[in-house]
Design a protein that fits this description.
Elements: E1 6-10, H1 15-27, E2 32-36, H2 39-46, E3 53-57, H3 65-74, E4 81-85, H4 88-93, E5 102-105, H5 113-130, H6 136-157, H7 166-180, E6 185-191, E7 198-204, H8 208-214, H9 217-228, E8 234-237, H10 247-252, E9 256-264, E10 267-276, H11 282-285, H12 287-330, E11 334-339, E12 342-346, H13 348-354, H14 375-386, E13 394-399, E14 405-417, E15 420-429, H15 431-475, H16 482-509, E16 517-519, H17 521-531, H18 533-538, E17 541-547, E18 554-556, H19 558-577, E19 583-591, E20 598-604, H20 611-614, H21 634-644, E21 648-652, E22 660-665, E23 688-690, E24 695-699, H22 703-715, E25 719-723, H23 726-735, E26 740-744, H24 752-762, H25 764-767, E27 770-774, H26 780-789, E28 793-795, H27 800-813, E29 817-819
Parallel strand pairs: 1-2, 1-3, 3-4, 4-5, 17-19, 24-25, 24-26, 26-27, 27-28
Antiparallel strand pairs: 6-7, 6-10, 8-9, 9-10, 11-12, 11-15, 13-14, 14-15, 16-18, 19-20, 20-22, 21-22, 23-29
Length: about 800
């Protein structure tokens, strides 16, 4: 094929260029081919010589319609342009674009290229022949004008694609309209969704006064009636319209207006108002093009409004997302979002809870942080919620970086995270709450146990009283064989031992309200040691005590103080046994008169306190014991008790192993302090000659006690009346006179306290002659009662000698007996 035509190919290096070159050299060797790689090179060549046809690769124009329009605008109007596309879909979308003679898709239609080139050149020659007539210049102007109008319409239609914000986009759009058509200004009216009335949405070219005038309700109603009701465009001249014939319009030189509706899906959504300085209808001069422009403008505004709505929604979503994230991040509860079993989000509270750096948490399986025994539970719950089954709040144990177990109360829900379903946990740390609950439960158990022990101890004291009494009576029988005497001594000794054990149990088990009285520290420490004497002995732990010669009494609650001493003693005992099978505990009580506080030291030779917890040993829930062996509250409670007493408790440094706790308690004036009811010292019976036998009333619900007391007192020559309840005793009082009443405090029906009040109402002096017996001298209510009445009392179980001594002292104080002179 011999042609000699000049063909320029603007194409990038690659397979397409190589294939096209081979094809044209083979099928059209007469073509004069030039291969260029840039648009700019092509226009430089055109300045020097002509070209018959150009083949332009669309990708060099950045696959952009705008760039294509610019390229066509700069090409000679009669130069055939063949567009080459490596993308079939892209080529199909522009196949009817004005200014393109043809297009080829590589490689599908490559074989047709020589024919397409010749066809394009042939069309060019035909057009050249047509342009030889006198209308050539007019035709050229028409084509150029058509290209400009097409470019304008294209710019209008694609304005929404360049949306930045509504105001700037509309400004650009309206300025283009005003540059294309000789109007003074343009106004966009839109229907307000709330009021359903027209209002000015945007304007261009208006003065403020003109805008204010047009915004009035009359104009708004006019536009609404004229546009929405008819749905058609209309033209008005100012001089013939009284509504618009006003100073703001006349001052601006406005002589006519053109209104046209904005419609979406055949529904009026607004209107365009064009203001002109001419009385002519400028829209009619370019009627087709103007109507086409308004149509494109309406579509562009629709798209802009849609894009604006999307932009507002996106902004609200971003704002909502930002607020939601801030809410999550700053929430007091821990929040985890889990996707595909891995943690994809965790807030600050969750990071603090686990004590890991965030990079060691994100992307890791949530189950990595769950204690082994809770993993199956966590998996079941996750699966149930992913199946949208309702799951109530549940508890889970997690492990933080230090290995500490954390109990959290969790609520889960299925959420969407980054477009995919995920599982959200909201957890509240209830570790401390659980520990407090366990402590409270333990305290309640101890309180219940204390009440049980108190009841048992009280019941034991009654038979112990009989055992001690009858064994002592039998021991006085000289006719018994020695071995029986020995048996009785064993019974008496073991009964006395049981008595001491019961008293210690009562002292410890009683729950006392805080009440400070004068306390002897030496007695308090020794009494506390007695409570643990048996355990210390069987565990081969030796107790050493040291007391200064002078230890002042202090003002304290004896029950609270004993709790502190007992806690330190048990802690030392358990610490020693955790390391060895024997040990030593040393308790030192000393007082330097120049320094006011009394010092009490508890020293053991156990393993001591680890440095990691020395500084926090008195904090709640800090313990050195294995899980389940302690609550971690003992030292914290002890610290609070000592502090409430105005003292201090500290952990002292030791040279070797072991621990040393120092308690310092202030020495206070105790003249006004409450004292325990006076307990009368044990003594032997003085040789006494009673002034005749005494009439004594015995009241006790235990038959055995009445029997032993009656036997003892009758052997002393007294007349005894024994009754088993207080109501019967009141009957005897009304009929007889008694020198002394021995009354138990705790009895069914009317108890000893009630009996005392009844007697006091009947005979005040007789009420002073009551000596109380009780199996519970440690009870706070009993102590208060005895302290208030100031009557003598004796605690069960008691020895015969103690009872007789107390009775003799009573009659001696009342001058009803005299002491026999031993020298006579």
């Amino acid at each position: 094929m011999k042609t000699g035509y000049k063909v320029i190919l603007v194409i990038q290096e690659g397979e397409a260029k190589q294939k096209i070159a081979e094809l044209l050299k083979r099928e059209a060797p007469g073509f004069d081919l030039d291969f260029l790689s840039a648009e700019l090179e092509f226009f430089k060549i055109l300045e020097k010589r002509t070209c018959d046809v150009v083949i332009m690769e669309f990708s060099i124009l950045e696959n952009s319609i705008r760039s294509l329009n610019d390229f066509l605008h700069n090409c000679p109007f009669d130069l055939p342009v063949i567009l080459l596309s490596l993308n079939g879909q892209m080529a199909l979308s522009i196949q009817n674009h004005p200014g393109i003679d043809s297009f080829i898709i590589f490689p599908d239609s490559l074989e047709k290229l020589p024919e397409i080139i010749l066809t394009a050149i042939s069309k060019r020659h035909s057009k050249s022949l047509q342009r030889t007539n006198p209308d050539k210049e007019k035709l050229t102007d028409g084509i150029s004008r058509s290209k400009q109008e097409l470019n304008f319409l294209f710019e209008i239609s694609t304005s929404a694609c360049r949306f930045s914000d509504f105001r700037s986009t509309m400004q650009s759009l309206f300025k283009k309209m005003l540059s294309q058509f000789p109007f003074y200004g343009v106004v966009l009216w839109m229907i307000d969704s709330n009021s359903n009335h027209f209002g000015i949405k945007y304007y261009e070219g208006l003065t403020d006064s003109l805008k204010s005038f047009l915004s009035g309700p009359l104009i708004s109603d006019f536009v609404m009636d004229g546009i929405r009701n008819s749905g058609k465009s209309f033209f008005i001249q100012i001089e013939t319209d009284s509504l618009f014939y006003s100073p703001p319009i006349l001052d601006a030189g406005i002589k006519s207006m053109y209104f046209c509706p904005l419609m979406i899906d055949k529904q009026v959504i607004g209107a365009l108002q064009f203001l002109s300085l001419s009385s002519k209808n400028l829209a009619s001069e370019k009627e087709n093009f103007f109507e086409l422009s308004v149509l494109h403008l309406s579509g562009a505004i629709e798209n802009i409004l849609f894009v604006e709505k999307l932009s507002e929604q996106a902004n609200r979503f971003r704002e909502s997302d930002t607020n939601y994230r801030a809410l999550l991040e700053n929430a007091g509860d821990s929040i985890f979002i889990i996707q595909h079993k891995n943690i994809v989000f965790i807030n600050k509270a969750g990071i603090d809870l686990l004590a890991y750096p965030v990079e060691e948490i994100l992307g890791k399986p949530f189950l990595n942080f769950v204690v082994p025994e809770n993993i199956e539970k966590a998996e079941i719950i996750q699966q149930r919620q992913l199946n949208y089954q309702d799951v109530p709040n549940f508890e889970l144990k997690l492990l933080n970086k230090t290995g500490e177990e954390i109990v959290i109360d969790l609520k889960g829900a299925v959420v969407e995270y980054r477009g995919q379903p995920a599982y959200q946990f909201i957890g509240r740390d209830i570790t401390q709450h659980k520990k407090i609950q366990r402590r409270l439960h333990q305290s309640e158990k101890l309180a219940s146990l204390g009440q049980l022990i108190s009841g048992i101890a009280h019941e034991l004291n009654n038979p112990l009283t009989s055992m001690l009494g009858f064994s002592e009576l039998l021991m006085d029988n000289v006719e018994l064989q020695p071995k029986f005497q020995r048996y009785l001594q064993v019974i008496n000794h073991q009964s006395t031992r049981a008595k001491n054990i019961v008293q210690n149990l009562l002292a410890f088990a009683r729950q006392h309200p805080a009440e400070k009285i004068s306390v002897n520290l030496k007695d308090m420490i020794n009494d506390t040691i007695k409570l643990r004497q048996y355990e210390l002995q069987v565990n081969n732990i030796t107790i050493e005590t040291y007391f200064d010669d002078v230890i002042p009494e202090i003002l304290a609650d004896p029950n609270q103080l004993q709790e502190v001493f007992l806690n330190l003693l048990v802690n030392a005992e358990q610490a020693i046994l955790s390391e060895r099978n024997s040990g030593m505990i040393r308790i030192v009580c000393q007082w330097n008169q120049q320094l006011e506080p009394v010092d009490i030291l508890f020293i053991d030779n156990g393993p001591g306190i680890s440095p990691e917890i020395k500084d926090k040993i008195f904090r709640p829930f800090i313990t050195t014991k294995p899980v389940g062996k302690g609550t971690g509250l003992g030292l914290s409670i002890s610290h609070g008790i000592i502090k409430e007493h105005g003292g201090s408790i500290t952990l002292k440094e030791t040279n070797g192993n072991g621990a040393c706790f120092l308690i310092q308690l202030p020495v206070l004036k105790t003249e006004d302090a409450k004292r325990e009811p006076e307990s009368y010292p044990e003594r032997v019976i003085d040789p006494v000659i009673c002034l005749g036998s005494k009439s004594i009333l015995l009241i006790d619900d235990e038959e055995a006690i009445l029997e032993i007391l009656s036997e003892i007192l009758e052997l002393q020559g007294h007349r005894v009346t024994a009754v088993r309840n207080a109501m019967n005793a009141l009957n005897y009082i009304s009929k007889d006179t008694f020198d002394l009443i021995l009354c138990d405090i705790k009895m069914p029906g009317m108890n000893g306290k009630q009996f005392y009040r009844e007697v006091k109402n009947i005979d005040f002096l007789l009420a002073q002659r009551i000596i109380f017996t009780t199996g519970d001298t440690m009870g706070s209510e009993t102590q208060d009662f005895l302290r208030n009445t100031k009557n003598r009392y004796i605690g069960k179980p008691f020895r015969i000698e103690e009872l007789l001594s107390l009775i003799q002292e009573f009659f001696l104080e009342n001058g009803e007996c005299k002491v026999q002179n031993h020298s006579s």
